[in-house]
Amino acid sequence: MTYFAPTALSDALSLIASHDVSIIAGGTDVFPAQGRDPLQKGLLDVTRIDGLTGLLWTPDELRIGAATRWSEIANTKLPNYFAGLQEAARTVGSVQIQNAGTVAGNICNASPAADGMPPLMTLGAKVEISGPNETRQMPVEDFVTGPRQTQLRADEMVTAILVPTLPAHSGAAFEKLGSRSYLVISITMVAVVIGCDARGRIDFARVAVGACSPVARRLMTLEADLIGQTPQKVSVTSSHLAPLAPITDIRADGDYRLEAVAEQIVRAIRRAAHANG
Q: Can you list the pairs that 257-263 forms with residues at least 24 positions away whose Cβ atoms lie under 8 Å?
């Protein structure tokens, strides 16, 4: 097993092209998945690459470097519409995992229960992908195509998550259901971004659900129906949840997951609206 720790993106891309490597930052997904088996690939540590860590504001967006730790997301002062992502950051594993695990690693692992996916979707986040010939972007929901499957090509790596500026009056919330607070795979999770006008009626709405389908889903019909409602009068119907396909497993059955999600959505909407009210 060979370990590489380049400091330049160009060197990292050259190593990806010339060696059979697994890209790691915190390694919080790679090493547990390996179990007791010996590593078959080299390791490419991207945490020393210039520009891949930290948060950088531009006039139009927040750039989150691919190797940015969850703990930095949780502890940085950000606009209210980032509250859902920050709440998710505080529930990713334990504090030790939050200090090692990265935002980009969470989505590249492409677990149906990835805590980062629903809040990033409600933020309208894009994934920046760099390869030998181009740098491209795509919405985070298009990047993850299925369990452990992404749009990342063999000669590419994720270099940043890009979050556009959202309406200043919007707030956010994240709800996670698990058997305990930490070190648990989610049974269900919900993220929302909600804005209310001067009359207290919803004028901006995004809702995403994780752990209830092969990939996290935006609930577009529900988002449209929320416009013009007051948060206290919100209700969620079975038709709103139609994009979801929850499984029955050792943690919960599918029907329970749908019932839990409906309640989580209502709670999250009211919390998000109150936070910026």
A: 257/187, 257/188, 257/211, 257/212, 258/212, 260/177, 260/187, 260/188, 261/188, 261/190, 261/209, 261/212, 261/236, 262/236
